[in-house]
Amino acid sequence: MAENDYVIRVLDTPGQVDAAGWNALLALQDPAGGLNPFMRHEYLAAMSESGSATPATGWTARFVTLWEGTQLTGACALYLKDHSYGEYVFDHAWANAYHQHGLPYYPKALVAPPFTPVPGPRLLARDAATRTLLVQALVAWCTEEGLSSLHLLFTSDADVTACQEAGLMLRHNVQFHWTGPPGGYRDFDDFLMSLNHEKRKKIRQERRKVKEAGVNFRWSLGADISNADWDFFYSCYERTYYEHGNAPYLSRDFFRRMQATMPENWLLFVAERDGAQIATSLIAVSAGGTRADSQFSSEIPAGVAYGRYWGALERVDCLHFEACYYQPLQWCIEHGYQRFEGGAQGEHKMARALLPVKTTSAHWLAHPAFADAVERFLEREGEGIDGYMEELERRNPFRQPKS
């Protein structure tokens, strides 16, 4: 496609973007894995329409769309930011350097779903050539708007390639993900037997503490999550934020919209003791399939579960580990999900069999001198990340074959 064959339209609200066309482009990015829930039109619309990500909270939406005639061929969700909160890829030092030199860093342009450190497609495009044109269009638009910088966070491999071709700088970080073997595990005990003795013993001890405290769990998926359960979840989520001295990023209305528009993407665990609910964890799920317990097939669909939100009204030793790791992992094993992503940061996740995975973001800075300085910084930081990954890999919790 020649550059003069397309038209760029920058829209201000998700309501101006055709939801079916957006989700159709999203489906093209990973036909096998289904729609990434955090890039669905419904998710992004709920962020805006619930008041969670709006100009008042420092997130001014701009939906950049690429058209060939009447066909939507590329799109991305861009936000003008006047701060760097809710991103999980930290550039505060860059902002401070600008400030010290009397230059404005904000507003900047961010391409990522708000408050969501989950890797996935950021540039929705019908093919690789269109994806590269979309990056070039983003840089051109940021230049025209006089913005300091453009940041694409937690990008997919296809996005990385397009960003490199457009001359953006890459930055790496580390998350911790659990991945099942090709044939899956028969059950949670089968999974435990794949770990070394120390880690297996630790997990059993932690689970036993929760059980001996009289705590039991139940789970609900999709439309089976009741209104009362959603209300209880939010009370726990909100309380946890306030206990840490912050207001919650997401409003109750945001989760009402999730319940209404994409219930199939949510899995809720509720902890109960003596007939009272005391804690919850809310997990997002993508497409995936169930398998009968008697089956043990290498053809299990590549469903993904994402650890997202948790909260508790009571303190119970090891309850967080049970609610946020062991219950979701057990569910994934029983339902044929092959990956569980534990969210941002957290070396402690390795003891729960979540292994280090390198994530990538891409950055463009308008000021040439600052771009050069950041590029040198990223080279040094990248070497540090490589060393950190090597160190983590030496602490692999799984049993190693005897030499």
Structure characterization notes:
There is one protein chain. The chain contains 11 helices and 13 strands. The longest helix is centred in the C-terminal third of the chain and has 26 residues, at 368-393. The protein has helices at residues 19-29, 41-49, 92-100, 128-145, 157-165, 188-192, 197-212, 227-243, 252-261, 319-334, 368-393; strands at 7-11, 59-68, 71-81, 108-111, 124-125, 149-152, 169-179, 215-221, 266-273, 276-285, 303-312, 337-344, 355-365. Helix 2 (41-49) runs antiparallel to helix 9 and helix 7 crosses helix 10 (319-334). The protein has 403 residues and is an alpha+beta fold. It folds into 2 domains: 3-167, Gcn5-related N-acetyltransferase (GNAT) (Aminopeptidase, 3-Layer(aba) Sandwich), CATH 3.40.630.30; 178-354, 3-Layer(aba) Sandwich (Aminopeptidase), CATH 3.40.630.30. Mean pLDDT is 93; it is low at 289-301. The termini are far apart.
Count helical runs. 11
Unreliable stretches, pLDDT < 50, 5 or more residues? 289-301
CATH class call of the largest domain: Alpha Beta
N-to-C order of helices and strands: EHHEEHEEHEHEHHEHHEEEHEEH
* Structural domain tally: 2
CATH architect. name of the largest domain: 3-Layer(aba) Sandwich
List the main descriptive attributes of the protein structure presented here:
13 strands, Aminopeptidase, 2 domains, 11 helices, 403 residues, alpha+beta, 13-stranded mixed β-sheet
Helix/strand layout:
Elements: E1 7-11, H1 19-29, H2 41-49, E2 59-68, E3 71-81, H3 92-100, E4 108-111, E5 124-125, H4 128-145, E6 149-152, H5 157-165, E7 169-179, H6 188-192, H7 197-212, E8 215-221, H8 227-243, H9 252-261, E9 266-273, E10 276-285, E11 303-312, H10 319-334, E12 337-344, E13 355-365, H11 368-393
Parallel strand pairs: 4-6, 11-12
Antiparallel strand pairs: 1-2, 2-3, 3-4, 3-5, 6-13, 7-12, 7-13, 8-9, 9-10, 10-11
